[in-house]
């Protein structure tokens, strides 16, 4: 392999091509080289010259040094909300974006402690082992662990992050895939990526609850490729989401029987769940028969259409806080300078802003930073806050309490 001052890591190049949804031919055109040259770079048979290397990093909008770093181990194979074969490139993009979030979390973890994982542990090896009672019990245990009681959940995203789940919510330009979940061995935490494209708070909450269901129920079950097995796991995650958001013992007491669209529309704002989700929950609990569910869905479609519902605009989608608060804390405590963070992470400022839930132009314009947590006592009594010793990193706590 041809070597220069900077040595390109082929796996990095493949990953960024997926994240940008670029083909090798498209990259070749943008950089001004032959398509065969890009293929050789990806195989590790050839490395670009210094000038071409700079142009390559510029076109891909990453730091040149980032392209030379060793790759972290991949996240576990994600479970998707869509299994269509036509979405192969789209899934590759979301996996790459999730691995970028993993790398951000990994690098920031040199300075902080994330919340400890607090999820129900299940050892199911096959979806056939999972019954409806198992799902209801897992959702109930989740609420108990998170001290949520049996009423409506005020902020599911905050509750999930407080339980150690690292969440990314960004516009993906892939409407067919609403989310994915996986586990990171290097960070030691589960990861969830949610699509923000539809900007619907009720759907986003359900998507997050659905992914939590996958993390709890299907952690030890391989990603399904067979349609029947995939559909079974999706139904199980759906039931978990309904049980997590709408506990049977309390939710059903507020529903008039037989349920009407108007009654459910009122409950929508209280429980933070769409009318469609509540109808599915009532069917799962046996309070709606198949025929009654079908008739109610037909009335819903006739009144409102098949997608939007009245009151969708009254809730703002819940945004992740963990990575954003981590960066704000490191800046406010003097551990890392604002302008140096994208360079430290190796990605463009725009990518860091999107993956961490920061406002646009966060790294190029000044803003008041609200301190949301305080520095913990350092490991060494003589260590100065914000100036770690050579062999010790400042340890900071992300969550001091609910917002």
Automatic annotation (TrEMBL):
Belongs to the short-chain fatty acyl-CoA assimilation regulator (ScfR) family. This is Zn-dependent peptidase ImmA (M78 family)/DNA-binding XRE family transcriptional regulator. It holds the Pfam family HTH_3. InterPro entries: Cro/C1-type_HTH (IPR001387), IrrE_HExxH (IPR010359), Lambda_DNA-bd_dom_sf (IPR010982), Rad_response_metalloprotease (IPR052345). PROSITE patterns: HTH_CROC1. Residues 13-67 form the HTH cro/C1-type domain. It comes from the Bacteria. Gene3D superfamilies: 1.10.10.2910, lambda repressor-like DNA-binding domains. It comes from Variovorax ginsengisoli.
